[in-house]
Amino acid sequence: MGSHYAFSKVADALVQRITRTCGIDGDRRKLERQPLAIQCKLIDAEEKSETSPDVKRWMTDVRAVAYEADDVLDDFQYEALHREAQIGDSAIRKVLCYFTPHRPLLFCASTMSKKLSNVLNKINELIEEMNKFGLVQLTEPQQLSYRQTRSVMDDSAVIMGRDDDMEVVVKLLMEQQDEHKLQVLPIVGMGGLGKTTLAKMVYNDYMIQNHFELKMWHCVSENFEVASLLKSIIELATNSTYTFPERVERLRRKLQAVIGQKRFLLVLDGVCNEEEKKWKDDLKPLLSLLVVVEVL
Question: What is the pLDDT of residues 253-265, one digit of tens each?
């Protein structure tokens, strides 16, 4: 697991809008705070789970509750999108079509309040149980701050419960209409939910393999620098070492020359919310200069 754990959807503007409307924004704020007590000790728990069946089972319960919370937040997001769609926003209707075909059209505030309260109670129980294990807050070793740029892809792996998610992501990537515009598809969620696993499944999908001329996977190190990231992308694209000075403008021109008009997929694994400004201000404008790019 990485060092960043967060129910990223809790602070989502769509979720906040509906919880305020329903009068349960206090519970939403609790859901934003409560997991922090668990998240700061997950590294120690992961280590202890290798020798303790009880801790291993507890880790499984944590993931299950995280999935449950994610489903509840999805319902809130859906309701916000559904209400906006009534105004006639075709783009929102398209998102609804892709992501929420299974969601009911009726939204019951009292039912959702109970679901949210149930998740909070389960988190409290997990915290109480966690305290009995004597878990401590650990930080990841410094040598892990730089991660390998190529991710091992096991084509034979079978992941249960992710097929529907994979199909949605693959469909989105395959149906992009504007091939001259940067397409960004973020996969967000709490650490340990399987975001990287889902991305790997998409990356290895046979339709994706045939659709993109070039596929690259880069594990983003913490506090990444734009120049070093561009250099890594060039090395992935050429399968060779790039030895020229790491000046952003030169790297940008080199990347344009290497990619050309190819349709390519770039997976940036491990980009954190804290790095959003760096992505928007520094990296996205550079990648936008390229043609036919999908950043997953």
Answer: 888 778 777 888 8
